From TrEMBL:
Stored SMART domains: HELICc
Source organism, top-level taxon: Bacteria
Alphabetical list of InterPro entries matching this protein: Helicase/UvrB_N, Helicase_ATP-bd, Helicase_C-like, Helicase_Restrict-Modif_Enz, P-loop_NTPase
Full protein name: Uncharacterized protein
Source organism of this protein record: Rhabdobacter roseus
MF terms (GO), sorted A to Z: ATP binding; DNA binding; hydrolase activity
Lineage: Bacteria, Pseudomonadati, Bacteroidota, Cytophagia, Cytophagales
Domain Helicase C-terminal residue range list: 112-259
Gene Ontology CC annotations of this record: cytosol
A matching Pfam family: ResIII
Domain Helicase ATP-binding, first and last residues per copy: 1-82
């Protein structure tokens, strides 16, 4: 071939990938021009391009993107805009004619009749147009040939890949001579086919791919012959694929829309390549030789992100290193503040210890920092929380914090016409209750949310679909500061999604979704602590499922974290902090909780003894670290809950506390009770509140009286009675000595016991209650009536999972007659909380 200046060939006849083709000399050509270059990633084409390493290779294509996402290797040097081609007369106008089918009629027959009508109309106008009827299978093509033969006068022939070249060429020759009006094709007559008169397309099986459809439409729109009019496309509107609905919409400017969509696809591809070219290798990582030719274009990630608020500096050039992984290649894009790296993980199946069976898996990690929003987005193919934390620690010098529920829900701001398929609702109650987390699933899950649910639950995770300015898409989010959608994207589109969400997340303006999801509170972010008394603080619900072990210096055995008592003080002279004390019989630790510069716990005095926590991984770490990852829930005097830096307000309800029915006045003096002495020895003949209550309960109708007064208690006294149907009725009694003479004005007399009441609902749960009583009897709590065996017979063996529960406050410092509005409102709020979680109304034993 060296004697020729130009050689024209096809890949199938010249590619060394073909068995019958020998390897050509590497210096045979100086220039290789490739048409239809979107096929160049295919093995046959690629082998031909790489066969001449010294030659320059120029790729030509009208569709510089592929359905399979494979890279068309090369750099853009020239693009010819579609609109310019139209203005230059290379492309003509296009029309879309949707065919509607009345009920009971055959869609294929209706489309055939409409196609024949358009053909006849064009012919009457002097146009020499040809029809293409598109089928998806050979069977469908044969069926359509019969339909067109019966319903129309169009002369059509079937063409498919199973026919011989001679048969296909004969059909094409008949088309050129005017002996046929058109063809019925099964994905034929595509690339390289030049028949300008092909102007009417009947899409009995529309393409489901945008790129293929645009290429198909473009071939009909070309103008390079005389006697030609606008290209026309006919389809049954109801059969258009959901993803293609925006393309196939009737409009007088349909051709303009198609050109715009096509140009957007090309522009998107150009922007993708420009974005990826801006990445640099991170020289801190010694690249693995086998990854040298790895292209970022080949990455397509599931759209998922863990989002952190950053309090500190971000260095994306830091050397990535993850425990259990070996980082093999790393890139950084300075302009777009993005780092990406590949890490290898070797692991053994859980069922063997034989190293020969170890498996190797590669993971991709992408980190993007939106400096304006102060947000770090992490997308990873290994989505474990411990990995996200490690990655954040790699790149951030300072502190990162997961987004509040309020902020992560802001990603819904841009959505309209939301349909939810899965909704989580988190119970406002503390500890383990009947439904600590409720989940609704279905095609319209949000419809099942009732207004009353807002009293018991606030928002958890959400997954659904809606419309954004960019079209219809899915969206998912969780209270763990994660967001996702069911799409896969290359890096530029992924980062674009992050940027779009960042704008919504930092926008504090209120918004609604317009559906029943709005009944569920997503919390309100606060920058200062509310000027309200903290009634109680409690652990996250997960702590009750698997209580962590607590290690206290000087104590030989580990303790259960939930056996502690927590007290909280908010002082007006120090409004920026809560003073928190966590107490055991063996000692206490004193902490402070601050919202600034971010929500966190600190030791009140760094010189004090440090406590440690151990979880399932058998790793011990400081209680401060544990609390900063699992913050306490603070129950405030107005019934609201503060968690992290967000408040979940109590649902509005003005129902007053029914003092006449729910408060019982006790003659403390007549019963020889010292109203100021909660427990312990008293001067004769007086006795403590605990001793008086013990006598009252033991002499009463209760089957069981259990005394549990010490840190980690469920109540001072727990009793078990039997309802008329034989089911257990649990009563809890929380006692407090009077802070002065009986009054209705001393709110502090109520705050402590009301705080204990807010944490009582979890004891309705049989499993939790039985476990508590069994454990406490082993460590000092006693039965004043009955015994553990009787308790087991009445409670542990009950078929019920949830019991009726009544909670009592025993407080001589509160007076029925002198009850203040503030105290009444407080008890009403606490009582409503009990009712919302399936308990009975709050009852009070107090002074007259």
């Amino acid at each position: 071939m060296r004697q020729y200046d130009v050689v024209i060939s096809t890949p199938n006849s010249a590619s060394p990938a073909q068995k019958a083709v020998s390897n050509p000399p590497e210096d045979l050509f100086d220039l290789v021009l490739v048409d239809e270059a979107h096929h160049s990633p295919a093995p046959t084409w690629n082998a031909l391009c790489e066969a001449f390493p010294k030659a320059r290779v120029v790729l030509f294509t009208a569709t510089p993107f592929r359905r399979d996402g494979k890279e068309i290797k090369g750099k853009y040097v020239y693009t010819y805009p579609i609109q310019k081609a139209f203005e230059d007369g290379i492309y003509g106008e296009m029309q879309y004619i949707p065919v509607t089918v009345a009920s009971g009629l055959d869609p294929d027959k209706e489309l055939a009749r409409q196609t024949a009508y358009e053909f006849a109309k064009d012919k009457a106008s002097g146009y020499q147009h040809i029809v293409m009827v598109r089928a998806n299978t050979r069977t469908q093509a044969i069926k359509l040939q019969e339909i067109y033969g019966k319903e129309t006068t169009l002369r059509l022939e079937v063409v498919h890949s199973g026919l011989s070249n001679r048969a296909t060429e004969r059909t094409v020759a008949q088309l050129r001579k005017g002996e046929l009006d058109g063809v019925i094709c099964v994905n034929m007559l595509g690339e390289g086919f030049d028949l300008p008169r092909l102007k009417i397309a009947a899409l009995h099986s529309p393409h489901r791919s945008l790129s293929v459809t645009l290429q198909f439409l473009g071939r009909f729109a070309r103008v390079n012959g005389e006697g030609l009019g606008d290209a026309k496309f006919l389809a049954i509107q109801e059969e258009i694929n959901h993803d293609m609905e925006s393309l196939f919409q009737e409009s007088s400017a349909w051709g303009r829309r198609i050109r715009a969509i096509g140009q957007r696809q090309i522009s998107k591809e150009i922007q993708t390549r420009e974005f990826l070219e801006e990445f640099e290798n991170n020289e801190a990582i010694g690249d693995e030789a086998t990854l040298d030719d790895l292209s970022l274009y080949s990455f397509s990630l599931f759209n998922h992100a863990k989002v952190y608020q950053v309090h500190g500096e971000v260095d994306l050039w830091a050397k990535p290193a993850l425990q259990g992984f070996t980082v093999k290649k790393s890139w950084v894009n300075r302009k777009h503040a993005t780092a990406a790296f590949i890490a290898r993980e070797e692991s053994l199946p859980k069922w063997t210890s034989a190293g020969v069976l170890s498996t190797t898996e590669y993971h991709l990690f992408v980190c993007h920092y939106d400096e304006k929003a102060g947000l770090l987005f992490i997308c990873a193919t290994c989505r474990e929380d411990v990995i996200f934390k490690q990655i954040a620690a790699l790149f951030v010098k300072g502190h990162v914090l997961g987004l509040s529920l309020n902020k992560i829900n802001r990603v819904l701001r841009s959505f309209t016409s939301l349909e939810l398929f899965n909704v989580g609702m988190r119970n406002r109650a503390t500890g383990t209750v009947a439904e600590s987390y409720r989940q609704i699933a279905g095609s319209a899950a949000h419809v099942a949310i009732e207004k009353s649910d807002g009293t018991l639950y606030h928002r958890g995770h959400v997954f659904g679909r809606g419309t954004t300015p960019d079209g219809v898409t899915t969206i998912g989010l969780s209270s763990l500061s994660k967001v996702w959608r069911l799409e896969q994207s290359k890096l530029p589109q992924l980062i674009g999604w992050f940027t779009s969400m960042a704008g919504d997340i930092v926008n504090p303006a209120p918004f609604t979704t317009g559906i029943a999801l709005d009944y569920l509170d997503a919390g309100v972010d606060v920058e200062v602590l509310p000027a309200l008394t903290v009634l109680a603080a409690d652990w996250q619900n997960g702590c009750y499922d698997k209580p962590p072990l607590l290690f206290v210096p000087g104590v030989t055995r580990p303790m259960s974290l939930i056996d502690t008592d927590i007290s909280v003080n908010w002082l007006p002279e120090k409004p920026d902090r809560y003073e928190v004390t966590i107490r055991l019989e063996e000692g206490e630790v004193n902490l402070i909780y601050l919202l600034s510069p971010y929500p966190h716990f600190e030791y009140r005095d760094e010189s004090q003894t440090k406590w440690e926590i151990e979880r399932a991984a058998k790793r011990r770490y400081d209680i401060i670290e544990y609390l900063n990852e699992n913050p306490l829930r603070f129950h405030l005097a107005d019934g609201s809950i503060l968690e992290g830096n967000q408040i979940f307000p109590v649902p509005a309800d003005d129902t007053p506390f029914d003092a006449e029915t729910l408060m019982e006045a006790i003659d403390w003096q007549g019963n020889n009770v010292d109203p100021y002495r909660e427990f312990g020895e008293c001067t004769a003949p007086l006795r403590s509140i605990h001793d008086w209550l013990s006598e009252r309960l033991v002499n009463g109708s209760s089957e069981i009286v259990f005394y549990d007064h010490r840190p980690g208690e469920c109540a001072d006294y727990l009793t078990v009675d039997l309802n008329d149907d034989g089911s257990p009725l649990i009563r809890l009694y929380h006692c407090k000595g009077a802070g002065g003479k009986p009054s209705g004005e001393r709110d502090n007399d109520l705050f402590d016991v009301c705080g204990q009441v807010t944490k009582s609902t979890r004891w309705r749960n049989r499993k939790v209650l039985v476990k508590q009583v069994n454990k406490r009897t082993q460590t000092g709590s006693v039965f004043r009536k009955g015994n553990l065996k009787m308790f087991a017979e009445l409670v542990a063996s009950s078929p019920q999972h949830q019991f009726a529960l009544e909670v009592y406050i025993v407080q001589p410092g509160v007076s029925v007659q002198k009850l203040s509005t503030k105290s009444s409102n407080l008890m009403a709020t606490i009582s409503r909380g009990l009712l919302a979680h399936g308990c009975e109304r709050l009852r009070v034993l107090c002074s007259a």
